[in-house]
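Could someone model iron/sulfur cluster with this protein?
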Amino acid sequence: MTAEESAQSALAAGDFSMWLTAMQGALRGENGSDVPCDGCTACCTSSQFVHIEPDEIDTLSHIPAELLFAAPLLPPGHVLLGYDERGHCPMLKAGRCSIYDHRPRTCRTYDCRVFPAAGIDGDEDKVQIRRRARRWEFAFPTFTDRIEHEAVRAAADFLARDRELVHGSPGANQTELAVLAIEIHTVFLGRDEDTGEAAVIAPNPDAVRAALAPPIGP
Ligand code: SF4
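Reply:
Sure, complex below.
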């Protein structure tokens, strides 16, 4: 295997349903994401703005104020941490997060496995994240693992066809689409009428709209 092929080899993403449960908990703020990054800093070096909420007092106390600016379209107190001319987060020092134990909630919950989970690629301008995300391979030891994966993908397909439903459209990014697909996938789960087994269904669009969480408001 060449060095390049080795660099592109598959990464074990874990059992799908276990990952999905943990990811849903992370999105609800109940736990952080436990991503086996193994030294990868793609998400810290991809020209990303990191959203920090007003209640993240500890995080805010570890970031110089001059690196933060008000988050557009959000209430006062919501700020963004920008990136340098290379697209690197300014808190990344010597290839490591210099405030790891105090890093923003956005960083704690970020998990590039959302892309293979939703069956979509990352954003085109985030090349490193796309490369990394393409390498993850989930395991499907049970029927539930498979059907839940299909439901998340069905939700992503639905949202991709109707981008207006994705918060912040028309500029909504692939990350937001993938996260929303995870959040609403249960609307796409039902029962096969003949067998009674769990199955992916085509829900009423109004049910999908009802399942979508409202955007952050004042
Ligand atoms: S704060 Fe730390 S974890 Fe978050 S993007 Fe910056 S370097 Fe990465």
